[in-house]
Amino acid sequence: MNALKEWILLKLTVDKRLIAVYCVIYFSWGMLMNWFGAEVEIAKFTYWWQVITCYIFYMVPISLLLRGLPFHAQYAYGLVAMCLLEFGGYAFGTSYAYPNNLLDQFFNERNFSLAMALFFALYFPLGNWGVGKVYRFLFKKQDK
After folding, report:
1. Which superkingdom does the taxonomy of this entry point to (predicted)?
2. What is the tally of structural domains in the chain?
C-alpha cells in the first residue's frame, strides 16, 4: 500500500504551472462540452459549476496519474474512471440526459451512459497530449 501511495504522490508532484495549464484547458473544454451538450440536446450538467468538480477536481488528477502511459493504457484506465463518473452522474441526477437525444437514437437509450463513457475516456490521452504541447510551448523557453 505504501508503494501505491508513493507512486500517486510522485505522479501528482508536478510544476504548479502544469496544473494551471490543465485547469485552464480542462475548464474551458468542460464549459464548451456542457454548452454543446445542452445546445444539441444530448446531455448537460444540472448546474454549471459541476464543470469545476468534474473536469478540475476529478479529471485533472486522473490525467496527472495517467501521464506518460501509452495511449491505450490511458484510454483503458480513463474508461474505468469515466464509467464511474457517468454512472454516478445519471444515477444521482447531477447530469441530465435529454430524452430521445442523438445518442439514444444511434445507440439506444440503454447504451447512452456507455456511449458517453467511451467518448469521454478519450479526454485522458488527448488531454494529456494537448496540455503537454501547450505547456512546452508556453514554458520551454523559461526553463532553459
Report:
1. Bacteria
2. 1
Residue (of 58, 68, 78) closest to 131 by Cα position:
68
Give residues with Cβ within 8 angstroms of 131, minimum separation 6: 18, 21, 22, 25, 63
Does residue 26 fall inside a structural domain? yes
Range of the domain at 67: 2-139
Residues 6+ apart with CB under 8 A from 52: 27, 30
CA 143 – CA 115 distance, rounded (Å)? 41
Q: Which three cell numbers stand for residue 126?
A: 488527448
Please spell the DSSP secondary structure of 26-80, one letter per residue. HHHHHHHHHHHHHHTTSEEESSTTHHIIIIIIIIHHHHHHHTTS-HHHHHHHHHH
Q: How many CB atoms lie within 10 A of CB 10?
A: 10
* Residue 144 covered by a domain: no
pLDDT in tens, 27-78: 999 999 999 999 999 999 999 999 999 999 999 999 999 999 999 999 999 9
pTM: 0.89
Report the alpha-carbon distance of residue 40 to residue 42 in Å, rounded.
6
